TrEMBL record:
It is a multi-pass membrane protein. It is found in: Cell membrane. The keyword Flavoprotein does not apply. This is Lysylphosphatidylglycerol synthase transmembrane domain-containing protein. The keyword Transmembrane applies. Keywords: Cell membrane, Membrane, Transmembrane, Transmembrane helix. InterPro entries: L-PG_synthase/AglD. It holds the Pfam family LPG_synthase_TM. The chain crosses the membrane at residues 12-30, 50-66, 134-153, 173-190, 224-246, 252-269, 276-292, 298-321. Its main location: membrane. The lineage of its organism: Bacteria, Pseudomonadati, Bacteroidota, Bacteroidia, Bacteroidales. It comes from the Bacteria.
């Protein structure tokens, strides 16, 4: 009974909470928007620029698969590029249903296809995501230097959010939990024990670390860094290109696009279905700093996010069909 209750609570946190958060944020945002004004802004859209942005988006996924291939090759998990591309397409499609579930799925898919340790592949995926986190931090620092006024405006407009971030960074509980976690990991590897559960956890942590740490010893580090720049260059360019689709954003310039890009990237850390809600809020706020009213900002966010979501669904369908055909061909052989 306790296990069943625990499972229900986990499912609620994993699936229901992100959906509820996304729905509440969308309701909060779009009840403050004049629908007639937003429709006029949508009709103003030049959709060829949205199409260009979507093409760039596809290349970002391909570059991500190429970067992951370098890490997996260093672990002697030699995977053809097409299955890696399918795994990335499928990841983002699944994340529309449940945040972070796509990463677990792509790890399981590649591990099973290549007959590799799940924890090792998972470690390489964690490293892949950590590289994204570091990139966002660097972009945030750079953007703060060239557009400090925009971030200060964010702090003044949302003082509770700003203070919450500061309090979290100064929380003794977070630092204590970090120290305890490190101490526990050290104990796992230092202690001498025959306990099978401890040994299993130790092996899992070792495999996870091997997949994570391979980036420090792998060949082709330069190509890996270049692909990281290419991935995030595509992410930024696709948003910047979308600025040319609307008369009220085409003149805003690259700094505004960078502010919107950084704030929207940070918002993706909030658990939601494909950024639904937090991403819209970040974009509307960023455009508002540069004089775009909430109705026009809402139209921009709705079209850009909606087009991207439709693309992810189509790429996901393509990926799952390709994976099914690949399994069938392997079975026949």
């Amino acid at each position: 009974m306790k296990k069943q209750t625990s499972k229900i609570l986990k499912d609620l946190l994993k699936y229901i909470l992100p959906v509820a958060l996304s729905a509440w944020l969308c309701y909060y945002l779009y009840t403050k928007i004049d629908i007639a004004t937003m429709k006029a802004a949508i009709n103003d859209c030049d959709y060829k620029w949205i199409g260009v942005a979507l093409v760039i988006s596809v290349f970002s996924h391909i570059f991500r698969a190429m970067r992951w291939s370098i890490q997996l090759d260093a672990l002697n998990i030699h995977t053809p590029l097409p299955p890696l591309v399918w795994s990335i397409f499928g990841t983002y499609a699944i994340n529309l249903l449940a945040p972070r579930l796509g990463e677990v799925w792509r790890t399981g898919y590649i591990a099973k296809r290549q007959n590799a340790q799940f924890t090792t592949v998972f470690g390489s995926m964690v490293c892949d995501r950590l590289a994204d986190t570091v990139t966002v931090l660097l972009l945030t620092l750079f953007t703060f230097c060239i557009a400090r006024e925009a971030f200060m405006a964010f702090g003044h407009k949302y003082p509770e959010t700003y203070q919450g971030i500061v309090n979290m960074l100064h929380s003794p509980w977070i630092w204590t939990a970090g120290v305890v976690a490190v101490a526990l990991i050290v104990w796992l590897f230092v202690s001498r024990t025959d306990n099978k559960w401890v040994l299993k956890v130790r092996d899992a942590v070792r495999n996870l670390w091997n997949g994570f740490a391979v980036v420090g010893t792998m060949p082709h580090k330069g190509r890996w860094l270049l692909l990281t720049v290419a991935i995030w260059g595509c992410y930024f360019t696709q948003l910047y290109v979308a600025f040319f689709a609307f008369s009220f954003t085409t003149h805003l310039g690259i700094v505004c696009a960078l502010v919107a890009f950084v704030l929207s990237s940070i918002s993706m850390g909030i658990p939601s279905n494909g950024g639904l809600g937090p991403w819209h809020l970040a974009i509307i706020f960023a455009l508002g700093i540069y004089g775009v009213d909430i109705n026009q900002g809402g139209a921009f966010a709705m079209i850009v996010w909606g087009a991207q979501t439709c693309l992810l669904v189509l790429l996901g369908i393509y990926a799952f069909v390709s994976i099914a055909m690949d399994k069938r061909q392997k079975t026949v052989r």
